[in-house]
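Re: the request from the purification team.
They wanted to know what the chain is likely to look like in 3D before they choose a buffer screen. I agreed to run a prediction and write the result into the notebook, where they can find it.
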Amino acid sequence: MNLYMNKDGRLPIVHILMATCEGGRYLGEQLASIQSQTYPHWVLHVSDDGSTDATLEVLKAFEKTLETLDRRHERQSLSSSRVFYYSGPKKGSTQNFLHLVQSVMARYDQEVGEVSKTQASEIGVGAVGGQQRMFHQEDLFAFADQDDVWLPEKLERAVAWHMSPRPQKNSLMPFDQKEVGFQHETARTYPMLYAARTIKVDAHLKPLGQSKPPKGPLNFNAALVENTLSGNTMVMNLTLIKILRLIALDHSVWHDWSAYQAACACLGEVRFDEKPCLLYRQHASNVIGVKTGPLNQSLRMARVFQGRYKSWTQTNLMGLKDIEPQMSVEARELVRLYREIRECQSFWRRLSLVWGLDIRRQNSLFQTLIYIGLLLSWV
């Protein structure tokens, strides 16, 4: 049996979610690296945020070089194309990614609805209108930046982890199943999130060093206060995407931080692969980028005093409110305590509450600063 097949002999398709905006300069190299993946069973969903450069022309040219899914794949008749287009909300990268999540899941809902209507008919649940379905329960979803270069085994390593045998976890599931639509599914119904290290490169792909692996456990105590995992490395299962879609577009600071928080808050499984999976291009137009060194660390801490971190915290708390029915009891309690500390008017009451707060930053100095910020109502 193929390593990546489920018990029914199906291979997962990886739905690559790419947000683009004025990305024509580097996009061709990224698309070529996707086409060169050792795991070939993928489709590309692109949400463009109103590009006026050659972004769409590069995508259309790339699309013409593709055939339908590999004939060895049981869904070779899925579509005449492997690239699907959506119009972005034109509100920045984070909202473009979350809009793409919602748009792809709207397509999923439409397909599931059509299948439900025809389950008793001659075409069966594996097809819609005579074509193979685009989605299956074991499918995976990968964020993709427009200017990176993926290493050849990026998807293969992620798929291998997602499909590897593990103990049944359904008994721990805290979700409101009706809300996110798990009631008829038999795949792993808990969130799963894979992320990895990156190789930082300059605009011309000259290596600048590897990203640092996270320290300590990847749990909600850490995810609540720090964005540790890089979205361009993330590969998620359907369960996590269904939860992520519940977050309103303006209730997220960064799409990857929201995904990390959702996975940890909802009793998910998070895997960090210390083997780099892509070349993370650093250039003047980076929306985020990897910024290290004493100066950048100082600038990050300065955000606490400037009120930016406080605004970020408020935004993330609204996003967590969106998925509260799916969160574990422990995660809800941590959020409740964190929110109470922030809203409390009494310094002495805040002091007593902070004493019982367990949050974890990668940098011990910054963690101390967060505690001080909570006491002084800075965060």
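For the purification team: Residues 151 and 324 are 36 Å apart (CA to CA).
Please add any questions underneath this entry.
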